[in-house]
């Protein structure tokens, strides 16, 4: 029997005018390579106000991790790549 993998989605909320959102703390491409069942999406809050409201984003940058349609982790502010990798390893069971 084939193992069914859950799909995970990491949503990064940002804005073009947000200085903190452009600090290269996180290399999402390298994170996505390490976690093949992780889909990373960047959402511009100015272009997507309804989605921003739906997720209750009040400050940026903000990260939301979903398993399927269920939110399992959220973070607002800057986070280092090593911290994010650690969080993802915990939630995605990657060791």
From TrEMBL:
Please tell me whether the keyword Ribosomal protein is annotated for this protein. Answer: no
SUPFAM superfamilies according to UniProt:
Thioredoxin-like
A GO term from the CC aspect:
cytoplasm
User: What CDD domains does the record tag this protein with?
Assistant: TRX_family
Query: What is the originating organism of this protein?
Result: Dysgonomonas mossii DSM 22836
Q: Report a single Gene Ontology molecular function.
A: protein-disulfide reductase activity
Sorted UniProt keywords: Disulfide bond, Electron transport, Redox-active center, Transport
Ranges for the Thioredoxin domain?
A: 6-89
Name this protein carries in UniProt: Thioredoxin domain-containing protein
